[in-house]
Amino acid sequence: MPVRCKFNCVSKKEVETGFIIEMQPVTCGSKENEEFFKYTPYGRMEFGTVNHEAAKQIEVGKEYFIDITAAQEEAE
Q1: Do residues 17 and 74 make contact, with C-beta atoms less than 8 angstroms apart?
Q2: Distance of CA 50 to CAs 11, 60, 68, 70, Å?
Q3: Residue 52 in contact with residue 15, Cβ under 8 Å?
Q4: Residue pLDDT, tens place only, 37-65
């Protein structure tokens, strides 16, 4: 069963190799955000991408759902 988290993009920096994106979980601002904060993981997430098209889709100040599911192992 997946775990659904709701994160807010707090920064996006262009670097030599692409972009560094930082996200933090929502904690308030709406009833939905308060509910997500009660039941999902908290912390901070930072990741990089060399994919400019993907980076264009992520905007500072917007909220995003992040689903955590187990990776399926490939059959040998």
Answers
A1: no
A2: 16, 18, 22, 24
A3: no
A4: 777 777 899 999 999 999 999 999 999 99
Predicted pLDDT of residue 14? 95
Max intra-chain CA distance, the chain: 47
Which pairs with CB-CB distance under 8 Å and at least 24 residues apart come from 34-42?
36/4, 36/5, 36/6, 40/3, 40/4, 40/5, 40/6, 41/3, 41/5, 41/68
pTM: predicted TM-score of the whole model, two decimal places: 0.79
Q: Say how far apart CA 46 and CA 52 lie, in whole Å.
A: 16
Average pLDDT along the chain: 88
